[in-house]
Amino acid sequence: MSTGVRQLSTTEGFLCGGLAACMAVTISNPAEVAKTRLQLQGELVKGGGLKVYNNAFDAMIKTWRNEGIRGLQRGLGVAYAYQIPLNGSRLSLYDPFRRTLNRAFGWSSADQIPITSLVAGAASGAVGAIIGNPLFLVKARMQAYSPALPVGTQRHYKNSLSALATIWRTEGIRGYLRGMDAAILRTAMGSSVQLPSYNWTKNQLVGHAILPGDSVWTFVASSSVSGICVSLVMQPADTALTRMYNQPTTKLPDGRVVGALYKSPIDCLWKTVKTEGVLGWYKGLFAHFLRITPHTIITLTMNDIIRNLYKDLAWGRSYV
Known about the structure:
The protein is mainly α. The chain has 10 helices and 2 strands.
């Protein structure tokens, strides 16, 4: 049964979501650089090893002092390219997946059912992670590189295109797929709570007449709750992903190039907890929060604003 509300096509939703995410990553990228370096600091060292960076703010300050704005925004170009397939997929496919699952179980496609919302969020996130994996791999390696205060394995790429060419030349097609299982796990976990928690909070605020549905403050409040949920749920998988992407590689006798430290995200999490304790999983948690919360706020807020502006421009005020 139709809800009477005209919906954006998947392509339109993909483009709106990608544009919103590119706006967000400009603001959140410095915290992402700090998070990446904190996650690699003291990797597989008993007791955490020597601390180069004390916390998220210290990491950003030292990066600024030693590398300037280029250091703080390291990997920004490829981050833009990555955000388009990742968040374009997540934000455009979530509602079609959710509505399809609802109909499959005999529920109204308009209802926000917790289980179908979680599954739809995870599935749309997994699609984005698969499409964007080579770009996320390059971004992580570029952000890990520091000419002044290096942590973890260091790779110096001139730019993202040079990085993609180098990976192809040295690691082959498998290089582009490296860490994909961890990327799917990370993004599925984050996406499973990001949009459901956002939509639930928004529905509560509007349904209880606390805020109007078209208010920017409604978008900001809903995004804030969503950002907190994502950072808590996704952190262990995010640490595993960073380490799997950045680990050194070794060439086997059969010619395959494999990771020298970890075989899988589960192997990475197990080795991390054995040597660094459970807190090793949560290295860079505050930096992750500083990244994901404003990123979520800006992405989801701007996604709603851009979608509404597009509807007004393309269809006029009579689209409902």
